[in-house]
């Protein structure tokens, strides 16, 4: 199915501002001590790295950042015909007893976050798990709520949200896309 861009909702300046706000909120609520950021592959890792840099600018110390691959924890794995591509989890620090902030680009049904929590718990028992998302688009199927939100963006189920980051796409922006009838 093809889609077309319906609207841009964040440009590079607004995206950066949202990440700065999330960083300040994390510092304010969780403090700097014992906090680690774990990004959900792929764009969540990039966002976690950016937030960590912003926290370093605020606090003077950079929290550790890890990358979480949830491929094998997804509840829709058996619905996919092809073999899943496992990209690997890299968390080079112990998570036991830490405040772990999971970072993702878009929160939709909540199923990705449930899978991420399952994967994280297999690695150890954090003291607290918090959730930071760049975009919360609603339509939850599970009782999951983000602690830190860059932008609330009500969408229809037909629409999709595309997060483009310069490290992956050459540009920073967030757009709403809708399917074309062709």
Strand order of the largest sheet: 3-2-4-5-6
The level-1 CATH class: Alpha Beta
Helix content: 25-40%
Count of all domains: 1
Strand content: 25-35%
Written account of the structure:
Helices cover 29% and strands 29% of the residues. The protein is an alpha/beta fold. It has one domain (13-75, 86-157): Rossmann fold. Strands 3-2-4-5-6 form a five-stranded parallel beta sheet. It has a three-stranded antiparallel beta sheet with strand order 1-8-7. Helix 1 crosses helix 2. The chain is globular. The mean pLDDT is 92.
Please supply descriptive tags for the structure shown above:
Rossmann fold, three-stranded antiparallel β-sheet, single chain, alpha/beta, 4 helices, globular
Question: Topology, please?
Answer:
Elements: E1 3-10, H1 12-30, E2 35-40, H2 43-59, E3 65-68, E4 99-107, H3 111-123, E5 128-136, E6 148-152, E7 160-164, H4 166-169, E8 173-179
Parallel strand pairs: 2-3, 2-4, 4-5, 5-6
Antiparallel strand pairs: 1-8, 7-8
Describe the structure concisely.
This protein has helices at residues 12-30, 43-59, 111-123, 166-169; strands at residues 3-10, 35-40, 65-68, 99-107, 128-136, 148-152, 160-164, 173-179.
């Amino acid at each position: 199915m093809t889609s077309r861009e319906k609207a841009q909702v964040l440009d590079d300046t607004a995206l950066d501002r949202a990440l700065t706000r999330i960083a300040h909120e994390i510092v304010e609520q969780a403090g700097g001590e014992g906090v680690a950021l774990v990004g959900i592959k792929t764009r969540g890792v990039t966002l976690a790295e950016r937030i960590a840099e912003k926290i370093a600018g605020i606090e003077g110390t950079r929290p550790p950042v890890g990358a979480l691959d949830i491929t094998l924890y997804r509840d829709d794995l058996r619905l996919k015909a092809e073999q899943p591509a496992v990209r690997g989890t890299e968390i080079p620090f112990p998570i036991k007893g830490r405040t772990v902030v999971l970072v993702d680009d878009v929160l939709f049904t909540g199923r990705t976050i449930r899978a991420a929590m399952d994967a994280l718990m297999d690695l150890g028992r954090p003291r607290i798990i918090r959730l930071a998302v760049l975009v919360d688009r609603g339509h939850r199927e599970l009782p999951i709520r983000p602690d830190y939100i860059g932008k609330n963006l009500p969408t229809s189920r037909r629409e999709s949200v595309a997060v483009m980051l310069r490290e992956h796409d050459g540009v920073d922006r967030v757009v709403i896309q809708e399917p074309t009838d062709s």
